[in-house]
Amino acid sequence: MAEECIFCKIIAGELPGEIVDSDERTVAFMDINPATPGHALVVPRAHSTDLMDIADEDLEATIVAARRLARRIEAALDPDGFNILNACRPAAWQTVFHFHLHVIPRYEDDPLKLPWIPRGAEEGQIAAVAEKIRAAGA
Ligand code: 5GP
Ligand code: ZN
């Protein structure tokens, strides 16, 4: 448990949380500022800061738990779709530094919008970036 981590405190029962699912490695609870009705978060019990930090076993358990939760939300709320979202680091909107997956049920008439504008790329740019990524190896 990390000192001052609100998600560690929710997991430990030291802060209130609407817990909707849990297993040996993960806990799922409702987001306090829901993007849509049913928006929930799935977190590993073991504190890790973000995607770069989390152990493979916890990452696997968290994505499996996210799908289990999505199925449960589907049965309960009958949404039209889902987004599973992770923010890694402040530049990517992360605000709580305990790894989490957002499970966001989507409804045909909800107000959410794609957060980027598809605008293509300069000739050769995608291939050049792909080559850089391949060259970086694992
Ligand atoms: P991030 O911005 O890091 O991807 O997501 C953090 C999420 O945690 C936000 O959607 C925010 O509403 C939620 N959140 C922040 N503080 C609390 C809290 O104390 N309890 C709960 N249940 N959710 C929280
Ligand atoms: Zn934590």
Give the arrangement of secondary structure elements.
Layout: H1 6-12, E1 19-22, E2 26-30, E3 40-44, H2 56-77, E4 81-85, E5 101-106, H3 125-135
Antiparallel strand pairs: 1-2, 2-3, 3-5, 4-5
Describe this structure in words.
There is one protein chain. The protein is an alpha+beta fold and 138 residues long. It contains 3 helices and 5 strands; from the N terminus they run αβββαββα. It has a 5-stranded antiparallel β-sheet with strand order 1-2-3-5-4, with helices on one face. Strand 1 and strand 2 form a beta hairpin. The chain starts with 5 loop residues before the first helix and ends with a helix. The site of guanosine-5'-monophosphate (5GP) has 12 residues, from strand 2.
Strand content: 15-25%
The radius of gyration over CA amounts to: 17 Å
List the strand order in the largest sheet: 1-2-3-5-4
**Range of helix content:** 25-40%
Bound molecules: guanosine-5'-monophosphate, zinc ion
Would you tell me the structural class of the helices and strands?
A: alpha+beta
Number of helices: 3
The SSE order reads HEEEHEEH
How far is it from the N-terminal to the C-terminal residue, by CA?
Answer: 30 Å
How many beta-strand elements? 5
Q: Tell me about the biggest sheet? A: 5 strands, antiparallel
Mean pLDDT: 97
Index terms:
single chain; 138 residues; alpha+beta; 5-stranded antiparallel sheet; binds guanosine-5'-monophosphate; binds zinc ion
At a glance:
With 138 residues, this protein is α+β, with helices and mostly antiparallel strands.
